Amino acid sequence: MPRLGRTVLATVMVAGVLIAGAAAPAAAATAAKTDHTSAQERKRVDSVPTPKLGWFNCYGIAQCATTWLPLDYDNPKGPKTEIALLRVKAKDQAHKIGSLFINPGGPGGSGVGIALYAPNFLSKSLLDRFDIVGVDPRGIASSTNVKCFKTVKDQTAVLGNMNVAFPWGKAEEQKYVGAAKQFGKACSTTGKPLSGSMSTAEVVRDMDVLRRAVGDKKLSYLGFSYGTAIGQYYANMFPDRFRAIVVDGVLDPEHWAGTKKTANQEQDERLRSADGAYRALQEILKRCDAAGEKYCVFAAGNSVANFDTIAQKLRQKPLVITDEFGTYTITYADFVGAILGDLYDVGAGDWVTQDSQFVWTLLTSTSQTARAKAKAGLIDRIKQARAKKPARDFPYDNSFEAFTGVDCTDALHPKDAGQWPALMAKADKRAPYFGRAWGWSTVPCARNTWTVRDEDAYTGPWNRKTAAPVLIVGTKWDPATNYDDAVAASKLLPNSRLLSNTNWGHTSYGTSDCATNAIDNYLLKGTLPAKGTLCQGAYQPFLEPLPEDPGVSASATPHATAAQNHTAPVAGPPMPSTLNGTR
Q1: In this structure, are residues 84 and 66 in contact, taking their beta carbons and an 8 Å threshold?
Q2: CA distance 444 to 446
């Protein structure tokens, strides 16, 4: 039956204000105190000849190229893997600073895709002065694909048993764990050798070679979400080889990779993405109550209690609705996954409360008029989600392999996949609703399941003294990369600066003039925002009265007009679960 899918969400270009002082010059570490690229890393990357990129025109506005890089940098003359790049050339070539490498996150997001989309969300000043370069990391998108199964049929047989937002109930959990074991073992056998060569460290080595290939002496980089891990890995592995790194929507790399002490924790127990999502949800529901029914559609009664009632009812029995085109089933997991998707958007307050009200009305109201409007609104939301991320059987879709190929080789995970049901119950107690939504996606990474290893994965240290500063941007209400991780990451890197933003959704670029200008100024001029800068997200929920028609579709809520103007793509969620979210 059709499921309620997670919406494809985006970062939005709107106005903002700086509220904590003017920008100050960057304070780079002195040469005497700067760490240098290790002899081992120099040998690995510098032994690879600078690729000659045969750029060709593509997509009407860009240039594309592919090149072959070592599968194993300890054996630079050995097997190779093909890497795809795309660049949008600087508008002002006479005053070009260089290339700006960008990555949207994931893991598994396409650097090529976000570079192609750059004219729609990056500022004119960046587009004028930089060639915007996107690289599809090894194993992903237009680069040589990792494939864990010989055929689509073989893949479907396994992923079909994992195609839920997250498993709920003992029977579904056992089915999911069994399929995850099959998946991890397939990637550890059929997926080799690429599945064991996809760590973030390998991506960073590729990027350093490609930095030379585009003619830049030092790297300029802007990474979102998981792309912030790429930026921080580069800063620590090549601390003297970049001119500017900005990481927006930050993962603490130590929490991402884990340590010997945290090896038996499931990854989100370290990252606390679920905690960030729960915190954002609770704040929205409380603000909804305070604003009242004139400003928030879900304000009648107690919003926090009503949301929990929805969850309890759906745990007991899915909501089933029909129209002339078919039947739509919304399970508890579907609902939680959809709300997590809503939290990714800059207009999270409107989306969360509108979708909650649709479901609340259908579960509790006796008014046929209200039910009819809620049903129409909910079906419209389902169709919107499907249109943005349609189902696909052919060609081979390696989205989930791309996600796990990075995460499972980067990070330490619990030993046995059979531990996950108990770990997820614990996670949901820590972060209600979202503990399971975030935690289940890594079950194929259990150490007894995912047995292929990258012996050259980087595991730290994460506190190198870099020659240039790293700008770390944290979003207060981020549901995927917890703001606390941005604070922790800034404390790890001695030569870094934390920029905080009160916007909603995932990542900050484009959500206020304050945040966007601070990022642009650093990339263009090397000028950091003042210490302690706190930007105010331009959009805040429940400040404008609702439309007079209470049954109006969510697509007509106050934030939607702004959201349709300029959007930055966020990498889609890993398959097979359409609702687990992504970093």
Answers
A1: yes
A2: 6
Provide the token pair at 474. Answer: 């944290």
Q: Which two tokens stand for residue 433?
A: 């609703």
What is the pLDDT at residue 66?
98
Distance CA 300, CA 302 (A): 7
Per-residue buried b or exposed e for 140-160, using 16+ beta carbons within 10 Å of the residue's own CB: bbbbbbbbbbeebeebeebbe
pLDDT tens profile 241-291 = 999 999 999 999 999 999 999 999 999 999 999 999 999 999 999 999 999
DSSP letter at 456 equals: T
Taking CA atoms, 216 is separated from 127, 236, 369, 433, in Å, by 17, 19, 63, 46
3-state secondary structure labels for all residues of 237-291: HCCCCEEEEEEECCCCHHHHHCCHHHCCCCHHHHHCHHHHHHHHHHHHHHHHHHH
Q: For residue 46, how many other CB atoms are within 10 A of its CB?
A: 14
Burial 265-301 (b: 16+ CB within 10 A, else e): bbbbbbbbbbbbbbbbbebbbebbbebeeebbbbbee
Please tell me which residue, 206 or 32, carries the higher pLDDT value. Answer: 206
- Rounded Cα gap, residues 40 and 430, in angstroms: 41
Cα 7-10-338 angle, rounded to 5 deg: 25
Give the structural domain span for 419: 1-583
d(CA 320, CA 359): 11
- Averaged over 135-148, what is the pLDDT? 98
Q: Which one is predicted more confidently, 250 or 557?
A: 250
Tally of structural domains, the chain = 1
The reported pLDDT for the residue numbered 549 is: 63
CA dist 554 and 536 (Å) reads 24
Coil vs helix vs strand at 120? helix
- 3-class SS of residue 498: strand
The amino acid occupying position 123 is S
Q: Are 196 and 454 a contacting pair, CB within 8 Å?
A: yes
Q: Which tokens sit at 89? A: 């050339």
Position of tokens 């579709």? 553
**Joined tokens for residue 400:** 């989930």
Q: How far apart are CA 562 and CA 287, in angstroms?
A: 21
3-state SS class at 122: coil
* Residue 98 parent element (H or E): strand 98-103
pTM over 0.90: yes
Q: State CA 510 to chain mean position distance.
A: 16
pLDDT in tens, 307-357: 999 999 999 999 999 999 899 999 999 999 999 999 999 999 999 999 999
| Tens of pLDDT, residues 483-542 | 999 999 999 999 999 999 999 999 999 999 999 999 999 999 999 999 999 999 999 999
* Backbone φ, ψ for residue 146 (5° rounding): -75, 135
- Element housing 86 (H / E): strand 80-88
Q: What is the CATH number of the domain that holds 209?
A: 3.40.50.1820
